[in-house]
């Protein structure tokens, strides 16, 4: 395993969203280490995307992390109770990000089950809010350098080609035509994804 370097993050969010599949998200905390394989992502294309927090082009205290150079985390709160983790990508100022939507638990599973108060492995990290609870990711992890901090991404030494499916993103019905973009990607046939869509297409 090796940590992802800066170059990995310096493409647009659609490309990085696909490249992140099969990589590993690791969080080292005082409670222990949790490690999961990324199986589902969503791309957000900044001002080009009505589904993006950055569509207006206005930098706010909530979104300022998005405008940084690729390779840091963007963690925000939804519904006043659930955190979501994004990987900021591409050049500074473009405000492109990739939402980590579902994970396959690999290491620290008992700790993740304690945090989520469940023993159901398939449901442990099959949603952006669920995975943040399981991995102990909160607003404290916002703006973390994903190459050097205790929250980081790794690639296996040898990667086999993946069967990737593209589908519409979840929970952005307000985004007009952008709600129909096939910018959600997941590994085909894995049981750990959040939602399998009928309109999905294999890449």
TrEMBL record:
Enzyme Commission number(s) of this protein: 3.2.2.-
InterPro entries: Formyl_transferase-like_C_sf, MPG, MPG_sf
Classification via CDD domains: AAG (cd00540)
Keyword set, alphabetical order: DNA damage, DNA repair, Hydrolase
Entries under SUPFAM superfamilies matching the protein: FMT C-terminal domain-like
Gene3D superfamilies (alphabetical): Methylpurine-DNA glycosylase (MPG)
GO molecular function: alkylbase DNA N-glycosylase activity; DNA binding
Listed GO biological process terms: base-excision repair
Claim: DNA repair is one of the keywords in the record: yes
Domain of life according to the entry: Bacteria
Enzyme class: hydrolase
Family of the protein in this entry: Belongs to the DNA glycosylase MPG family.
PANTHER family, A to Z: DNA-3-METHYLADENINE GLYCOSYLASE
Protein's name in the database: Putative 3-methyladenine DNA glycosylase
Organism: [Clostridium] polysaccharolyticum
Classification lineage: Bacteria, Bacillati, Bacillota, Clostridia, Lachnospirales
